[in-house]
Amino acid sequence: MLGEKITARAHTNIALVKYWGKENEQLIIPANSSLSLTLDEFYTDTSVQFAESLNSDEITLNGNSVTDDKITKFMDIIRKKTNINTFARIESTNHVPTSAGLASSASAYAALAAAGSKAAGLNLSEKDLSRLARRGSGSATRSIFGGFAAWNKGTDDESSYGYSIEDPVKMDINMIAIILDNQPKKISSRKGMKISIETSPYYQSWIQQTTADFQTIKDAIKENDFTTLGKTAELNAMRMHSLTLSSNPSYLYINADSLEVINMVKELRENGVECYYTMDAGPNVKIICQNDKISEITDKLSDKFSSNQIKVSGPGEGIKYL
Questions:
Q1: Edge-first strand listing for the sheet containing 276-279
Q2: Theoretical Cys-Cys bridge with 318: which of 143, 146, 158, 208, CB 3.0 to 4.6 Å?
Q3: Which Pfam family is one of those matched by this entry (predicted)?
């Protein structure tokens, strides 16, 4: 029934096989398939209620009234699907630092897709919900699902969608996020991808390698092979960041603290503590590890970083309505 307030929760996901670059900007069709782990620690709660009395969408983010053309355009997609012209009241609370490379847009648009479509009277399958979420943020496609999830590249709106690989997760796996900077990044992922795809001489090699990495990690999940998953995810992340350095103009998401964490991980490994790092488009580093290594890793990190900068997360769940 139109006018009912619907609230949905979506968790962020961290890509183990990154997506970096679009073949279609408008529909957000990626240049390669990607694979991720949804995390329980970071999430977005969003409520949507359509109201005849409104003259425009009313958007509240973390208690503050905002104007966001991107959200309005996303709501227009829902309105077009349902043939309604009513504006909506949207209230969103982000339990993730926004735009800092911790996949805040993934959880934000997955939650908005779920709450918005249901409030408009749609009852979408997870696959169709992932296709809708993709129109707001590519990585939101994967946040519809819990555990290990993938985003099938596809070639058009119909064939580019997310799907579950394994949920619940059988592997002993955690991620420790080190929040080094919670400020929005200077170069957005969207802008960075565009520069890399147009100017990096290594871009086609990246696509070929990432396609191979996708299969390697998918097989590692099936075989419960933590070591292969960790090694491949770490390499994949660094290859993505090499695209930023080889672009024209070059740009960088890694900062001095990021490098310090990377060196800490390497030192831990040399001392027999198995762990691996990954990074998205931002300075924050995520450490992939198993349960029995968490305390050793966090002890080492706490020599340099405060406890509120270190967040331990296990596998998270998919979309749920509150």
A1: 276-279, 285-289, 174-178, 310-313
A2: 146
A3: MVD-like_N
